[in-house]
Amino acid sequence: MLRELEEASKVLKELIEKGKVVRVITHNDADGLSAGAILHKSLIRENCAVHTRSVKQLDEGAIKDASANSQEVIIIADSGSGQLEEIKEHLLEKYHVIVLDHHQPKEIKHENLFHINPHNHGIDGAREISGAGMAYLFSKALNSANVDLSPLAIVGALGDIQDAGGELVGLNRDILEDGAKAGVLKAEKDLRLFGRQTRPLYKAIEYTTEPFIPGLSGSESACAQFLSDLDIPIKKNDKFTMLADLDKDERQRLATALILKMIEYKVPPKFAESIVGEVYTLLNEEKRTPLRDAREFATLLNGCGKHDKNGIGIAVCLGERGELYQKSLEMLKEHKGYLFSCYNWISQNIGRIKNAEVLYYIHTNNEINESVLGTVASMILNSRILTPIKPIIAFSETEDGAIKVSARGTRELIEKGLNLGKVMLYASEKTGGEGGGHDIAAGAKIERGKEEEFLRHAKEEIKRQLHE
Q1: Interior CA angle at 463 toward 457 and 464, to 5°?
Q2: Roughly what angle, to the nearest 10 degrees, separates helices 451-467 and 420-430?
Q3: Does domain 2-180 bear CATH number 3.90.1640.30?
Q4: Of 24, 49, 119, 321, which is the most buried if we count CB atoms within 10 A?
Q5: pLDDT tens-digit profile of 91-124?
C-alpha cells in the first residue's frame, strides 16, 4: 500500500506543478471531516489551489456534481470504494481521481484512477485504519513534514470507534507513534469517559456512550446516585469532582463498579472492561477544552456534520478557534442532548423492535433523524436489551423521500462470520439501492416501500455467512 501511496503522491505533485486545481470530496462525519482537513492543509502546503467539500453520502448525484466542476484532479476520502463504477462513468474520462477509502471495496482499473484501500492489502479497514488515517498516510507520502497532522488521523479513527477493543491497533498504532515522536500526541491508560477533561464526573459518566453503560448512559440522576453509592462525592471543596480529581483508590473503585454494572446488564466482560483503556491527548490543544481529548474532538465534529455545518467542522480542524469554534461547541452540546433524547425514545419504543430469525429490525419512520440512525442502532445493540444477540437493521425516512438503512453488529458476531458491509451491498443491489460499509457497521439507501424486500435479501445473506 505504501508503494501505491507514493506513486499517487508523485503523480499529484506533477499535476500540481502544472497548475492543476484539486477538488477534495469527503464524508461529513468525524472521520471524513478529519480526512478532508488533513488533505486540505497538506495541499495548501504544496501551494496548490484546492477546494474541499463534504457530503452526507457519495451517491451518483454527488459524483455528477463533481463532474460539473472544472477541477482536473479529484481526491475522494472516506468514501468512493463502493462507488467506483459511478466514478468511472462520470469522472474518469475527464479527471484524474484518487480514492483514499477504508470501506470494503469493489474494484475497477483505469489509467486515471488511483484506488488505495487497506482491504486490498489484507489490512482491516474497520479496525486498523480509518479514512482520516488513509488521508494522513497519503499526506505523509506527499511530504514527511505532515506528521504534525497525525492528531487529526487519530480523531478520525476514534470517530469511527476503531478503539472499541480498548486501544488503537494496526496502522492506527503507527500513526499514533508518529504523533508521539513529533510531540503532538500522548496515549495513556485511563477510564474512557466522555468529557474526562471538561465535565464533572457524574456528567462524564452520563455522556459516555462508547462504550454504552446500561443504566447510566443518558441518566444524570442514576449517575449521581451511582457515585454516591461508591462514596465518591459529587463535589470536593465546593467544586464539582472531575475524573482528574480522583485518588488512586477512588479511581479503582469507580472502574470496578462500572465494569460490574455493565456485566450486570449482560454486557460481555471483555467489552465491559473496555471502559478502561487508552485515551489520547492532543498536546497542542488548550487544556480543559473538548479539543484536548481526541474522543471529544471527534464527537464535536460529528455534531457539526449532523447539523449540516460541515465547513465549521473542517475549519476547527484547520485551527479556527474564534466564532466558528464557539458555534461548534453549541452544536456539540445539542448533538449529545439529541442522542440522549434518542435513548429515551428507544426506552419508550422497545416494542417496535421486531425479531426476524437472524436479525432484529425497527422502523423509526421520521421520528429519528437519519443522521444518527447508526448511533441509535448501536445504542439498542450495546444496551443489551435484546437477547439473544443478533445484528440489528434500522430504517428511517430521509428528507428526499427515500429510506436510510443502518446495520450494526457485535464483535462476537463478526468472529462467527458476519459481514454487514456485504449484507448491505447485496440487499441494496437486489432492491435497486446503494449500500456497503464495514463488517460491524454498514448502511444503505433504498426507495420507500422496499423495506420488506430489503430485509428478505439481508436475511438470505446473513444466513449464508453464518452457515459458512
Answers
A1: 90
A2: 140
A3: yes
A4: 24
A5: 988 899 999 999 988 888 899 999 999 999 999 9
